Amino acid sequence: MASKAYCNSGGVLLKEFLEKEALICAQCHYCRVCPVYSVIGWESVSPRGRMFMLRSILKGKLEPSIVVEDFYKCTTCGACEVVCQTSIPLVDVWETARADFVRKGFAPLNIHKMLREIAEKTGSPYKEKREDRGKWAEKYKTKEKAEIIYFAGCTASYRTKELAENTVEFFTKVGIDFCYAGADEVCCGSPFLRTGQREIVYEFFKKNYSEWKRRGVKTIVTTCAGCYRTISRDYPKIAEELGYEWDFKVFHTVQIIHKLLKEGKIKLKEWREKITYHDPCHLGRHMGIYEEPREVLKALNTDFVEMERNRENALCCGAGGGVRSQFKEIAMEIGKKRIEEAKRTGAKYIISCCPFCKLHLEQSSEGSMEVLDIIEVVNKKL
């Protein structure tokens, strides 16, 4: 379920917004579906507990420094929004509260701050050099300018390069005329929006925006669920706040694949394997894209089996919202729960549509299951 986005993701912090939503909470505890709560079991990390603490903070009865970590033990997956009986846009609440903590000096947490400092120097939360961002693409000789640009994102550029490579190969095979910014691409800013560090996101927005305009771009395509959510939902708000014209179309690669299949422009070979699909939170609950990846997988004539929790009820992989970087043990426990759920289907492969989900689930599986991105499968079966 997509968040209602009452507050501006570009940086407007509204005490009235937090007060309103905190008072609406019925304290019903349906939100115990929270993946972090399922691992820790503390009331303070459940959405209900955080809303209770938020009320106390807003009334001046609780010092934020005492509980700030509990507000960061949240993957911002949105599972709580799906079951919320009073329809609170909870992801917006957590992100706005985090941004307010940062503004008032109670946050960011140490590793989140370190990642921002790295990104200020390299254009990415990873430690690799900025000039190495596009090295994976050198063998493809991508164009400098085109109306469509491939936005690889940080994880596919530095950690799961096979996703970026398969995407470029797929685009080339099907005749998509595209360009790629290489070292001129910087982080979309998602990790910093989610952890309340919004100022750096403005700089990344300006850099990416200017590159897209310089290259004559009209359409942005990305393989990353987090990048897709940020560029399609958060960037237009930032553009409006800064007075920039936003006239770009934004797609995830799975939407492009799905469209080509529906139009009969591509056909996929059979892949007779037993597979299951993991819904990335940023693609599913945040953006409502559930059926496109499933229809693509069914076009492969696979033995497709759903996990017990799927679509809007899917279990988060555990990596998002800054949890993997700051609280890796919690993230890994959630990831292992998802792997166990996948194993119960009898599937050999877990397929997803996000490099960060792939990276985290691979590590969580410890080699017990193979994790693939949908673009890897489609490119090989084209």
UniProtKB/TrEMBL annotation:
Pfam families: CCG (PF02754), Fer4_8 (PF13183). Belongs to the HdrC family. The keyword Disulfide bond does not apply. One of its GO terms (molecular function) is metal ion binding. Residues 64-93 form the 4Fe-4S ferredoxin-type domain. This is (Fe-S)-binding protein. It comes from the Archaea. Keywords: 4Fe-4S, Iron, Iron-sulfur, Metal-binding, Oxidoreductase. GO terms for cellular component: plasma membrane.
